[in-house]
Amino acid sequence: MTTAARTSARGPSSEAGRKRVEWRDALRLLAQLLAPRRGLLLGCLLLLLVGRGAGLMLPAAGKFLLDEVVERGRRELLVPLVLACGGAVIVQGLVAWALVQLLSKSAQRLIADKRIEIQRHVGRLAIAWYDKQKSGALVTRVMNDIEGIRNLVGTGLVELVGSSITALGAFALLCWLSWRITLSVLLVLLAFGALLFWAFKTIRPIYRERMKIQSEVAGRLAEGLSGVRVVKGFHAEEREAQVFASGALRIFDNVRRTLSASAGLHLAASVLMGAAGVIVLYIGGSDILDGRMTSGDFLAYAMSLGLLAAPVVMLASLGTELTDAFAGLERVDELLRETPEDVDPRRTRKLGRVRGDLRMEGVHFAYEEERWVLHDIDLEAPAGTSTALVGPSGAGKSTLIGLVAAFATPQRGRVLADGIDLADVELGSWREQLGVVLQDSFLFDGTIRENIAYGRPSADAGAIEAAATAAHVLEFAAGLPQGLDTVIGERGVKLSGGQRQRVAIARALVSDPRVLILDEATSHLDTESEALIQEALRTLMRGRTTFVIAHRLSTIRGADQILVLEHGRIVERGRHAELLAAGGRYAALHERQAGLL
């Protein structure tokens, strides 16, 4: 048998198996979601049974009214019958009110708890995972995908169960009143059930696709809004509008397909229920004329059929909502199944205060398998020394720094801190000893003071002001309306590039790190600001193991060692004067920069 034939032969069964697995996974996720709230749900279900039981009072009262009160002229029973029906209506109303209070609030609390769980989980994922994501899409998954579960824990699921119970109770009553009519109606209901199953199987993938599209569109929208200065600088507003419009139309097309399927389902439900009504009229009328049914029996049957039809129609309405909820729950589960970077059985060692001796032994690293970014890196950075990394873009400088910060683990070789392999270290105990100033000086929407204290929230005012003074933040903050308490906007948009970088440096300094990482930390400073801050950095680097990435060689002349990287390899190492005297790559790079000044 050919490969194609074998594939064709096993295709249908494989597809059927995959779908069974999907539904089994969906039910597993539902069980996990409901398990902590099973007591509440059971109580609400009992309430619902009381309410639905009260609802069955009306068909019985209708039969009693015609057969006992009207036909036999027993007027004295009319008032008690009406009072009993009124009591049943009040019970139904109270049950409905209680269910909304209990279930709706519980569902909203669950949504809040799930969002907190997802955000905490996402925050523990590795940098390499983030590199493959869009921030806007992640926001959508955290905030929107979980929204639909209110129908799984809220009134939706309980209504679905309650409607099913009501339908079963009404069906039993219908069989008791007239099995002949019920058998005919049952064929209609079976046809509707088959249609319902087909519709849910069709709609569910559409909802999953919609959530994916919404995440993509939200991600691109967030990028456009964050980069609004680039957009306007290149007069690309219309281009961004067209990109967004394309995404919005993709969402519309998906919604259109969902609405078409839902509308078809509702139409089929109406037609089938109408057909059931026609059958009841014909057979019921015939039975009354032939003496097989009383008028009270027929009224009770018609009212019971309404109790059966309403849940069936509700199934069509709730079905699309629950399908949406399952799709969101599955996407959330996909996110929660991502392994956090600190969940590693090897990471059992918790570091105390380190001296700061850093060493790399035979380190190879690749973002993709066998496409090495770093090759056979060996280096030693004794405690309190400064190591500068220079080289062209793409040489591997930032990757090397990322390994020092344990943002990633080398595939070969070791990164050691005080002789301990960082691959065995609990990440939190290492990173709390780092101070990091990246090339992109990211600041949060808040005050300057809050941003400086971000790495050490317990820092007192004196420590914050000392760091602000050392990084020359106070020099420009004094001219702002509220000084260090000035709100600087999203990403620090109200500050200049150099001012943001100084705040970022102060943020690293206030945390009092043992290992300091400066990735182009002075890249956004003008000549005057750079001169002021270099002296402060030299003072603050004293006693700390420091790694510096710098393209401007004038900023690293005092480094204890300079490593020149090319194509992921260290091609030269030494101090500034030694490398100049060697006349190699560093000397050529220095000469080119000197010629540009």
Note the main attributes of this structure.
597 residues; alpha/beta; Rossmann fold; six-stranded mixed β-sheet; 21 helices; 63% helix; elongated
Q: If you had to describe this structure to a student in words, what would you say it looks like?
A:
The structure is a single chain. The protein is an alpha/beta fold and 597 residues long. It has 2 domains: 35-336, ABC transporter transmembrane region fold; 358-596, Rossmann fold (3-Layer(aba) Sandwich). Helix content is 63%, strand content 10%. The chain has 21 helices and 10 strands. It has a 6-stranded mixed sheet with strand order 6-7-8-3-9-10, sandwiched between helices. Strand 1 (358-368) and strand 2 (371-381) form a beta hairpin. The model is unreliable at 1-21 (pLDDT under 50).
Describe the structure concisely.
With 597 residues, the protein is α/β, with parallel strands linked by helices. It has two domains: 35-336, ABC transporter type 1, transmembrane domain (ABC transporter transmembrane region fold, Up-down Bundle); 358-596, P-loop containing nucleotide triphosphate hydrolases (Rossmann fold).
